[in-house]
Amino acid sequence: HEVRLTAQSAGKLLTEARAKGALLPDWTWQGEISQLLNQGQYALRLRAPAQIKISPSEQVIEHLQALVFNHIQLDLDFLQLQQGNIRSQGRAENISLEDILQFQQNKQKINNTLRFNTEWNIHLADSANGQVRIQRTTGDLMILANNKLGIGLSEAWLNAEIKNNQAQLST
User: Fold this and answer.
1) Does residue 60 contact residue 52 with C-beta atoms inside 8 Å?
2) pTM, whole model, 2 decimals?
3) Strand spans (E) along the chain
4) Distance (Å, rounded) from C-alpha 79 to C-alpha 59?
5) In sequence order, what DSSP letters do the residues of 131-153 get, joined into one string?
6) Around 31, how many Cα atoms within 13 Å sit in the side-chain half-sphere?
7) pLDDT in tens, 117-129
8) Rounded CA gap, 134 and 120, in Å?
């Protein structure tokens, strides 16, 4: 099977996707997403085909490589949803604070050049378990006074080790 999806508004392309695969005897659809493009506020562009598996009891996407917001490199090793459990592992590079803050209801502009990377391996079931690491790669935060003044941030990182819903943080 091959599925193609195109969404337009006022003649402008917003979303385009293409997937191909097969329906197996156990009602599992297995294949790959070969094209995924979303334009606009939540821009996303697939960089390489991703594997997908959808069954009544499990949904899995593997090897997803995408460019998010035109600058974040997302490498999702896997995302698995299975009977209320969620497992995921991956990395994202070149994230800014503004990328995260755009989801806030009261959007505030922060003057910064800060960029960071993150990597994770998490399992959410009856309890949360896994690891998350966030590390500053470049940039600084600015204090707004008469002149912009950087706080001089040269190194920053946060590690979270999560075991049975308890997080141990280190910086």
Assistant:
1) yes
2) 0.85
3) 2-9, 12-23, 29-38, 44-48, 50-54, 58-68, 72-82, 85-96, 115-124, 128-138, 142-144, 148-150, 157-163, 166-170
4) 8
5) EEEEEEEE--BEEESSSEEE---
6) 15
7) 999 999 999 999 9
8) 9
DSSP state of 104: S
Cα–Cα distance measured from residue 28 to residue 21, given in angstroms and rounded to the nearest whole number = 10
Give the strand pairing for 29-38 and 2-9: unpaired
**Which range (3-7, 60-64, 105-109, 154-158) has the least confidence?**
105-109
pLDDT digits (tens, 9 = 90+) for 18-30: 999 999 999 999 9
Q: At residue 147, what are phi and psi to the nearest 5 degrees?
A: -125, 155
The number of residues in the chain equals 171
Contact 18, 26 (CB under 8 A): no
Q: Per residue in 41-61, is it b (16+ CB within 10 Å) or e — as a string?
A: eeebebeebbebbbeeeeebb
Q: What is the CA radius of gyration of the chain?
A: 19
Written as six digits, the tokens of 81 are 């949803």
Q: What is the mean pLDDT of residues 12-16?
A: 81
Give pLDDT, residue 143: 65
Euclidean distance between CA atoms 116 and 124, whole angstroms: 24
